[in-house]
Design a protein that fits this description.
The chain is built from 5 helices and 6 strands; from the N terminus they run αααββββαββα. The protein has 210 residues and is of the alpha+beta class.
Length: 210
Amino acid sequence: MAPSPLSALLAVPQAAAFPLTRRAFVAGAASAAAAVALGGCSVEQPLEPADDAPADEEGPLPTVESGVAATLTAAVAYEDGTPNPIGCASGLFLAANWHVFEGLYELNMHTYRAELGLAATDPVQIDDLAFEVTLRENTVFSDGTPLTGQAAADALNLARSGRSRYQERLADVTAITVPEESPNQLVITLRRPNGSLPLLLDIPIALGEG
């Protein structure tokens, strides 16, 4: 029978050429203890369920309703100012606003190009300093208020004010108006020509002053 790992560690020649000193005995005992400890760690013990553990029972799968929810309800754990994207200074709301509000145009983070948002088309240049933006039709805010040129103009004019983080971005905008004959359009007038106007207009459009 082959010797066990423990007996192999403890085996010494029958005719020892040196006396078994106290130091050698202590060293051998320590080696044996280490072998026992390591041996215990290397043995895989099967896991057995406790006597009072409930047996797995297959029940009916939960029912998942299909479709799109009409209402999205969210809550935060603390008060942190206004959620209006123009006037808020909350890191929580700033992060959430990008998933809730839309701008006239949206910046594609992969191509760094402007894409249509609430605007139906690219800006139409009227002259060197004026551009016309047509809004998407049949668009409403979350409370059902229709999106109009005046609502968008109010939001952008608020963004131009000193209360907004967007003030510097819109520093070259001198006026944002709504044509009387086209309430679904905006006319944006610049101080100097700017071919990147859509990239400046990814500002969230919201109702109210925040």
